Amino acid sequence: MSAAAQDSLEALRARLAEFARERDWDQFHSPKNLAMALIAEAAELVEHFQWLTQEQSRALPPDKHREVAMELADIQIYLIRLADKLGVDLITAANTKIALNEQRYPAAKVRGDARRAEEYE
Amino acid sequence: MSAAAQDSLEALRARLAEFARERDWDQFHSPKNLAMALIAEAAELVEHFQWLTQEQSRALPPDKHREVAMELADIQIYLIRLADKLGVDLITAANTKIALNEQRYPAAKVRGDARRAEEYE
Amino acid sequence: MSAAAQDSLEALRARLAEFARERDWDQFHSPKNLAMALIAEAAELVEHFQWLTQEQSRALPPDKHREVAMELADIQIYLIRLADKLGVDLITAANTKIALNEQRYPAAKVRGDARRAEEYE
Amino acid sequence: MSAAAQDSLEALRARLAEFARERDWDQFHSPKNLAMALIAEAAELVEHFQWLTQEQSRALPPDKHREVAMELADIQIYLIRLADKLGVDLITAANTKIALNEQRYPAAKVRGDARRAEEYE
């Protein structure tokens, strides 16, 4: 993660790299494997919501909220590891993508409409 | 995202909240729906790697690398939106989870061994 | 797939094995890779539903219904390939799992309640 | 599932419909929710393979093989439920999709090459 050595994501990246190095886990952390680990964590998140109504998903009881927060953490952790292994700066990439989305979905055109991207094209 | 108003993740959070507000998309952004969107993006990431060897996944050609970086961006974007909707600070949550992992996987015990968590318990 | 040579799943298994052999794709079809391909297809399914209400998901317009049917087909295809590579009989495995679920979730106890499995235990 | 009342998939479909009815779970089984449940099961499958080499994934020890077989069962179960709710015949859909794939990927053109579909187009 390039510029922001003072940044909180950069601090996490360094902490996670050290965590893996101490355990000799870099050998397992190919981008292919990390992508699998990331989606497995994303699915644990989905599992929390699968039988809930949308309303219920907006008002989680405290114990479930804590569990969901830890799933978000797991996803963030693997995302940082994967970005680190690939040399991608997550903040830069996200800003690039948001700029693309601003062009693809002009507010005046898509207001209140969530159809999938390709349906606009 | 609590403390760090100067932080790059917080800047992204604010930019994404504004993006959704301008498009009147908050109505679609229940945690349930955002969890689905997040895993759909995670799967697009997985799709890039599914037929690659681990070695190939470590050395992506430039065009594929750019595409993968945009998938990482999509995941980061939905993760930030979801955390925002749930009032979760991603940095705090990730640090909490890493501290848990440090206890669960003492370096001396798990060095070089990537068995799944529950298999240690 | 053991017994039922006359069975429709068995016919699909044989057709897919032939499809892969003709293309020399068995080299890519490790269980690891097929699991990735399967979840990527599952995510394409999820993507169709992510912004829909539950009601909308029950009443898809015809063109979307056709697309969703093809996603179900893709999942079934990779599931058959994976079972074939692992020597698993899907019908037998599903019946075994349903019998387990009948014990885990006695109708009298769980009627109208969809909490996750572990919350009963 | 249309024609094949004698078929093993049809028998599973009927058994699962009865299972849900006895528990009053149809209310939770919207296509949207079932798609989430299916991908959560697919991710449990992925989790078994995420740190394995491709070779290891081809030679699972017996206990892991049994667990993986039960994950395949879970995916098949939710796939059948979803197809049932949407009125899709899985066998017909799979045969339709395979016929499409035979056109999209002529053996003479793609032999030994697993590039993603869109890269051919």
Can you describe what's shown?
4 copies of one chain form a homotetramer. Chain A has 121 residues and is mainly α. Helix content of chain A is 69%, strand content 0%. Chain A contains 6 helices and no strands. Chain A has helices at 8-23, 31-49, 54-58, 62-86, 90-104, 107-110. Chain A starts with 7 loop residues before the first helix and ends in an 11-residue tail after the last helix. Chains in contact: A-B, A-C, A-D, B-C, B-D, C-D. The interface between A and D is medium-sized, with 14 and 14 residues.
Provide a short characterization of the protein structure.
4 copies of one chain form a homotetramer. Chain A is 69% helix and 0% strand.
N-to-C SSE string of chain A, H for helix and E for strand: HHHHHH
- What do the pLDDT scores of chain A average to? 91
Strand content of chain A: under 5%
- Would you report the number of β strands of chain A? 0
Helix count, DSSP H or I runs of 4 or more residues of chain A: 6
Q: Kindly report the greatest chain-chain contact and the residue count on each side.
A: A-B, 69 and 69 residues
Q: Which blocks of ≥5 consecutive residues of chain A have pLDDT under 50? A: 1-6
Categorize the overall geometry of chain A. globular
From the alpha carbons, calculate the radius of gyration of chain A and give it in angstroms.
Answer: 18 Å
Which descriptors would you attach to this protein?
homotetramer; 121 residues; mainly alpha; 0% strand; disordered N terminus
